[in-house]
Design goal:
- It holds the Pfam family SAICAR_synt.
- Keywords: ATP-binding, Decarboxylase, Ligase, Lyase, Multifunctional enzyme, Nucleotide-binding, Purine biosynthesis.
- One of its GO terms (biological process) is 'de novo' IMP biosynthetic process.
- One of its GO terms (molecular function) is carboxy-lyase activity.
- By secondary structure, the chain is α/β, with parallel strands linked by helices.
- The protein is built from twelve helices and 13 strands.
- The protein has helices at about 15-20, 50-55, 65-90, 135-140, 145-165, 185-195, 215-225, 245-250, 265-270, 270-275, 290-300, 305-330, and strands spanning about 5-10, 30-40, 45-50, 60, 65, 95-105, 110-115, 120-125, 175-180, 205, 230-235, 255, 285.
- The strands form three sheets. Strands 1, 2, 3, 6, 7 and 8 form a six-stranded antiparallel β-sheet that branches. It has a five-stranded parallel β-sheet with strand order 10-9-11-12-13, with helices on both faces. Strands 4-5 form a two-stranded antiparallel ribbon.
- Helix 6 (about 185-195) crosses helix 11.
- The longest helix is centred in the last third of the chain and has 29 residues, at about 305-330.
- The mean pLDDT is about 95.
């Protein structure tokens, strides 16, 4: 374990107010306020600055905690908070602040989240109302521990326990509909579908040509507009892409063109996806993975589980780049 407690705050309350006189309770931090405390019971876990942590040169499981490691823990704390915050928002509950700790894997040498996140880790205010708080702070603020007071604490913990189960349930179904001009585009569509699956997005594959059968294309479009499920249409058409523009001109749903370009005619064919008539909002994304990510960003606005997967993916990408840079610097030295 790394003997540092990381605290992430969205709303000013508790000890922060004592250490920062003049700040009113309820002040909202955007971006999030980060603090760290050295775990030392004898000295009441003093607050540390980043500089103090770096100068301490802590060594845990053979890993010296330097700038790279501090940055990874700081960035991870923010991402973890935002993911939990987004989940609790589906229950109309404000995640006020949260504390977590990290450790070093003795097998891989990686920094990992090494904490149990529970009702002792955070402050939760239903509807943003401090008087309704459901976390362990209720127990801490008891003037007298009585059987009645403990029953109230128990009910609060039961309330949290029941709602935690709901955090992993999708709040809205969503999907990506892949429209391909011919079955020769199946391989390209499968790449998009695989990438969508990493975000938990179901995909439907259909074959239709806006040039050869526009009436059927519009019938398929209406089929998915009629059930009220949030949908992103992806048009996969090579050569002259009429599919994306026709869909965009006839639906209020988002449309993404992801043409399967070929080396011979690709530079010419792509213009049928890029040059749109006025009044069309069809976007063009060439990479199947990026296309899936864009669809997830759209649907994640309504589905917190999709949004959380996106946020975690962003963190993992950032950490991998940070570690790659550290490794390269070590090689250069």
């Amino acid at each position: 374990m790394i003997p540092i407690e990381w605290v992430c705050r969205r709303v000013a309350t508790g000890s922060f107010l004592k250490r920062n006189p003049g700040v009113k309770e309820g002040y909202r931090f955007s971006p999030l306020k980060m603090e760290m405390f050295f775990k030392d019971d004898a000295n009441n876990d003093p607050q540390w600055s980043e500089e103090q942590l770096l100068e301490a040169k802590l060594c845990v499981a053979g890993l010296t905690i330097g700038q790279c490691e501090v940055d990874i823990m700081s960035r991870s704390t923010v991402a973890i908070f935002e993911i939990v915050e987004k989940a609790w928002a589906t229950q109309n509950c404000t995640l006020v602040d949260m504390k977590i700790e990290f450790g070093v894997s003795v097998k891989s040498g990686e920094i990992v989240l090494a904490d149990v996140i529970d009702n002792d880790s955070w402050r939760l205010w239903p509807a943003g109302d401090r008087s309704q708080q459901k976390d362990k702070q209720v127990y801490r603020e008891l003037k007298e521990v009585t059987p009645e007071a403990m029953q109230m604490v128990k009910r609060n913990f039961e309330w949290v326990s029941e709602r935690v189960k709901l955090l992993l349930e999708p709040q809205a179904s969503s999907r990506v509909v892949l429209l391909m001009g011919s079955t020769s585009d199946v391989a390209h569509c499968e790449k998009i579908r695989k990438a969508c699956a990493s975000y938990g997005l179901p995909c439907v594959l259909r074959v239709t040509s806006a040039h050869k059968g526009p009436d059927e294309t519009l019938r398929i479009k209406a089929e998915y507009e009629g059930d009220g499920i949030p949908t992103v249409f992806v048009a996969v058409a090579g050569r002259s892409n009429g599919l994306g523009p026709v869909m965009s001109g006839n639906t209020a749903y988002p449309v993404i063109s992801c043409p399967p370009l070929t080396p011979d005619w690709g530079p010419q064919d792509v213009w049928s996806s890029l040059r749109m008539p006025s009044g069309l909002g069809c976007s063009t994304v060439l990479s199947p993975g990026a296309c899936a990510q864009f669809a997830a960003q759209i649907l994640g606005l309504r589905d917190h589980l999709v949004w959380c997967k996106l946020r975690a993916s962003m963190l993992n990408t950032w950490v991998s780049l940070k570690l790659a840079d550290k490794k390269l610097q070590a090689c250069s030295l």
